[in-house]
Amino acid sequence: MSGLVGVYGHPEAANLVYLGLYALQHRGQMGAGIVASDGQRMPWHRGLGLVSDVFDREIIQQLKGASAIGHNSNSSHELAQNMQPLVFELGEDGLAIAHSGNFTNASELRRQYGEKGAIFQSRTDTEILAHLMAGYRGGIVDQVKHALSVVRGAYSLLFLNRTSMIATRDPHGFRPLVLGRMHEATIVASETCALDLVGAEYVREIEPGEVLVVTKDGLQSFYVVSAHPSTRCIFEYVYFARPDSIVYGRNVYQVRKEFGRQLAREHPVDADIVVPVPDSGVPAALGYAEQSGLPLEFGLVRNHYVWRTLIEPHDAIRHFGAKVKLNAQREVLAGKSVVVVDDSIVRGTTSRKIVTMLRAAGAKAVHMRIGSPPTKCGCYHGNTPNSNELIASNKSTETIRDFIAADSLAYLSELGMYAALKADECSGFCSTCFMQ
Ligand code: AMP
After folding, report:
1. Which CATH number is 7's domain given?
2. Ligand 1: distance of its center to the CA of 376 in Å?
3. 279 and 207 inside one domain
4. Can you say which residues are annotated as belonging to the binding site for [4Fe-4S] cluster?
5. Is 347 in the pocket of ligand 1 (CB under 6 A)?
6. Ligand 1 atom index nearest CA of 345
7. Which of 208, 229, 250 is the last residue of a domain?
8. CATH no. for residue 420?
9. Ligand 1 pocket check for 280: Cβ under 6 Å
10. Per-residue model confidence as pLDDT tens for the chain (436 residues)
């Protein structure tokens, strides 16, 4: 998962991209980068850290030009050279690429190019695109067409050269990408919250398999690979996307709230209050509370400034890691039977700490409710950890309940999830993470 923003046809393109990346910070905190184009030069800047750490006013002012693309990285390759957009000298027009996703045939392609003597400057899958494009004659559009006909996997991509910007989404539509307008300028972004911040108007989703070319003559849209059955990542609705975004045509907050309502129908509890795990569990908890008629109380409060490593005193503080992020309010919890709602359980360590924390603050009973089905299978597109790290991959709900020490534990069913989405079973979504 990464964040993408591109702007074409605005005198402050880099500044708008910077703001868009700021709105999409939740999609990647490892590093960020922006490449601009003024039609002749393509200045760029990349670095490790949050958007606000990587850029300052002076740097943004140096990124001159009416078009720019940017990227928030979640890469595990913690070196600045692996941050994006990647920039290449390609023909007369230069090339920058920003990529959210991975290619399932990346290792095979890397090996093939390696055997031919190609040198890679990064560990990213993205760089393969540059090699595919460089080996193909023609302009950027033909080169992109060729590269897309070779790579497989889940991706949203932005390309920039001196004269054009290209945005594309994989033929299954696994990753979100939306199109917006701002006066004469075109803007594309992973989520609509980036459009909102800069005051752009949401036009539509970029369609699965669509290649959108933006030049001074306007927008041109075509499809390289014929339509595939769409498999949009359902975890965008569970956890990845910001609740104020429209993803796959729906407001994420309302979807999550509906998951909570359905969860309450499926797994009611005789309790005193509903407590969300902030922030990701809030909409589902609200839906649960509304459906069950129980009051919603913020029994857990989150510190929003926990990005940087903290120095713990020698005398270890009990449950330090959990307390840094969340604090349980005794005044709200003491003597209460609590339904605590979170969006998902991955390794189970957070839930375990939360249950301990709620009990330590006086909760009489703790009933854990999860607004998605058990996450059992590692994502082959790299969105969730490997199966061996997922507690539900080989443990029953009862064993997990025992591990997290809750009085009861229940998950939203997969059918319930589709019912909440008012979709036919599995229609158009990838939900392999819920399969054994
Ligand atoms: P865990 O302690 O590993 O069970 O983490 C559970 C928490 O991680 C939940 O509260 C989710 O909000 C969050 N979460 C869910 N999916 C992911 C993911 N792919 N990467 C990071 N955090 C996640």
Report:
1. 3.60.20.10
2. 13
3. no
4. 233, 379, 430, 433
5. yes
6. 4
7. 229
8. 3.40.50.2020
9. yes
10. 799 999 999 999 999 999 999 999 999 999 999 999 999 999 999 999 999 999 999 999 999 999 999 999 987 777 878 899 999 988 888 999 999 988 999 999 999 998 989 888 888 889 999 999 998 988 999 999 999 999 998 899 999 999 999 999 999 999 899 999 999 999 999 999 999 999 999 999 999 999 999 999 999 999 987 767 888 999 999 999 999 999 999 999 999 999 999 999 999 999 999 999 999 999 999 999 999 999 999 999 999 877 656 677 777 777 677 788 899 999 999 999 999 999 999 999 999 999 999 999 999 999 999 999 999 998 877 677 888 889 999 999 999 999 999 999 999 999 999 999 987 666 789 888 998 7
Mark whether 22 and 125 lie in a shared domain.
Answer: yes
419 CA to centre of ligand 1 in angstroms? 24
Considering the domain architecture, whether residues 224 and 240 belong to the same structural domain is answered as: no
146 and 244 together in one domain: no
Asked if residue 248 and residue 216 are part of one domain, the reply reads no
Co-location of 146 and 263 in the same domain = no
SS (H, E, C) the chain: CCEEEEEECCCCHHHHHHHHHHHCHHHCCCEEEEEEECCCCCCEEEEECCHHHHCCHHHHHHCCCCEEEEEEECCCCCCHHHCCCEEECCCCCCEEEEEEEEECCHHHHHHHHHHCCCCCCCCCCCHHHHHHHHCCCCCHHHHHHHHHHHCCEEEEEEEECCCCEEEEECCCCCCCCEEEEECCEEEEECCHHHHHHHCCEEEEECCCCEEEEEECCEEEEEECCCCCCCCEECHHHHHHCCCCCEECCEEHHHHHHHHHHHHHHHCCCCCCEEEECCCCCHHHHHHHHHHHCCCECCCEEECCCCCCCCCCCCCCCCCHHHHHHEEECHHHHCCCEEEEEECCCCCCHHHHHHHHHHHHCCCCEEEEEECCCCCCCCCCCCCCCCHHHCHHHCCCHHHHHHHHCCCEEEECCHHHHHHHCCCCCCCCEECHHHCC
Same domain (yes/no): 190, 244: no
Number of domain units in the chain: 2
Cut 0.90: pTM above it: yes
List the domain range (segments joined by +) for residue 286: 235-434
342 C-beta closer than 6 A to ligand 1 = yes
How far is the centre of ligand 1, averaged over its atoms, from the C-alpha of 344 (Å)? 6
| CB 382 less than 6 A from any atom of ligand 1 | no
Any atom of ligand 1 within 6 Å of the Cβ of 350: yes
163 in the same domain as 256: no
